[in-house]
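Renewal narrative, Specific Aim 1. Our central claim is that a sequence can be written position by position from structural information alone. The example that follows is taken directly from our test logs and has not been curated for this report. It begins with the structure tokens describing the chain, in the order in which they were read.
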């Protein structure tokens, strides 16, 4: 084996978790050539959440790399390719690993290169679920059906948006989750006639209460987005005269929508097939403990692929905050173990605490910006300043109240103090009288 291809640490995957893990390594002591990041993408780790937001806006408003390389998303320094070089980190881009042998501690690339590691961090994230896999007819091989996961996908969509701007401008967006919510808005801003199709009775149904969803649906409708709820696409129809491009989307309720462009956001699945049979899995991901150690010694899994303990259960989370924090926790655990190998995680009497996941999500679309932290269980108590769908600056909160405590909170149009207060609510779950909460309204968040 070529000595140069041997590394003390390899991070497999070059996304959000990889970038934040690299930062943590450098802060905790990293020697040149100890760490390699192997990624099939062509660019250094970046804040993936930008791809469905500013990246899709018209020229003049759109963000482009290098502006959103990690770790700008959490207010740190931007890690450009030169940063990795300076730190002696080998950043191997356009390198897909097709085989992992955890027993011999080797990874093999599509071109046959073999890499050896002492410690592996699996950070391969998710791939978009394809409509053809869900049994939708006509969804294979059409040039105008787009998925959004990596920057190469976003570039294809941007090119199509620019091209279609000169011809047809009808877009059908499938899925009422984050991608549908954000891409639907971005396409509308680009002047498309947008139809948003989702099978649930409301947008972002896992998080939004009926009242919250009703506001956003009203706002989107007011902006000209057409909503098709409680329905799914069952067939895409094309004709030979338009190069096999989809022209019509048929729904299960019998409606047919015309389309020049289709964007699909119907979920994602962890990319862990190369580890099958070698590592313990759970809930579609790789099973880890509170330090992101897997069932295989010296192998860690972080970000979207990790299934980890949470309040007596195990969960898998596809969110950027978790990708950042789990990466940090894994590196802390790796470094702690090295400091004193005889005790797995306890170092010189200092016990590293297990990962404490703090659910916190956000989204931006049109002029809207919302944030949620904590748990959405219990009674939902709204506090409204302006919830008009025509408002230029809507502002409202929903608190989730359970057994005398505020356990979760959602805000539209929050300021920095309120957003920070939200994290405190998620962390401490403050006890408060219901009357006092109603009286304080939105200001309760900032006072935390
Ligand atoms: P990723 O960031 O997906 O990185 C995985 C990396 O592994 C990629 O570089 C991939 O190419 C590489 N890889 C995979 N397999 C291989 C292989 N075999 N060989 C080499 N490389 C490989 N979350 C939020 O909380 N808020 C948001 O607003 C939000 N918006 C989003 C918008 C979009 C368009 C998408 C796609 C996701 C969004 N998310 C959002 C989710 C968030 O981006 C993910 O949770 C996060 O990126 C997970 O980080 P990760 O490092 O685990 O995986």
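The sequence written for that structure reads:
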């Amino acid at each position: 084996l070529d000595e140069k291809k041997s590394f003390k640490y390899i991070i497999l995957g070059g996304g959000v978790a990889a970038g934040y893990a690299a930062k943590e390594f450098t802060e905790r002591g990293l020697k040149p050539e100890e760490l390699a990041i192997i990624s099939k993408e062509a660019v250094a780790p970046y804040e993936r959440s930008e791809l469905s937001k500013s990246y899709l806006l018209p020229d003049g408003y759109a963000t482009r790399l290098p502006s959103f390389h990690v770790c700008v998303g959490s207010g740190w320094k931007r890690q450009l390719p030169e940063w990795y070089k300076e730190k002696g980190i080998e950043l191997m881009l356009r390198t897909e690993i097709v085989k992992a042998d955890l027993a011999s501690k080797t990874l093999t690339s599509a071109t046959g290169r073999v890499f050896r590691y002492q410690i592996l961090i699996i950070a391969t994230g998710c791939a978009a679920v394809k409509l053809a896999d869900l049994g939708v007819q006509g969804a294979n091989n059409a040039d105008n059906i787009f998925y959004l996961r990596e920057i190469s996908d976003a570039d294809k969509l941007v090119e199509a948006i620019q091209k279609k701007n000169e011809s047809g401008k009808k877009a059908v967006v499938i899925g009422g989750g984050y991608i549908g919510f954000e891409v639907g808005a971005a396409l509308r801003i680009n002047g498309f006639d947008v139809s948003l199709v989702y099978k649930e009775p409301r947008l972002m149904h896992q998080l939004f209460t009926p009242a919250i969803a009703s506001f956003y649906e009203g706002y989107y409708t007011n902006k000209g987005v057409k909503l098709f709820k409680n329905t799914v696409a069952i067939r895409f129809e094309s004709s030979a005269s338009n190069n096999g491009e989809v022209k019509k989307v048929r729904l299960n309720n019998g409606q047919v929508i015309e389309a020049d462009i289709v964007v699909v956001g119907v979920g994602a699945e962890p990319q862990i097939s190369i580890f099958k049979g070698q590592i313990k899995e759970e809930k579609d991901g790789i099973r880890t403990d509170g330090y992101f150690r897997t069932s295989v010694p010296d192998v860690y899994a972080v970000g979207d692929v990790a299934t980890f303990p949470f309040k007596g259960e195990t969960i898998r989370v596809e969110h950027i905050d978790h990708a950042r924090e789990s990466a940090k926790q894994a590196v802390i655990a790796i470094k702690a173990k090295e400091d004193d190998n005889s005790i797995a995680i306890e170092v010189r009497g200092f016990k590293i605490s297990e990962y404490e996941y703090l659910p916190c999500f956000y989204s931006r679309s049109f002029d809207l910006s919302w944030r949620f932290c904590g748990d959405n269980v219990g009674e939902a108590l709204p506090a409204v300043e302006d919830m008009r769908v025509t408002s230029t600056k809507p502002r409202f909160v929903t608190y989730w109240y359970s057994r005398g405590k505020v356990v979760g909170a959602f805000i539209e149009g929050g300021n920095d103090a309120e957003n920070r207060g939200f994290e405190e609510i998620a962390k401490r779950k403050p006890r408060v009288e219901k009357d006092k909460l109603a009286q304080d309204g939105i200001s309760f968040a900032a006072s935390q």
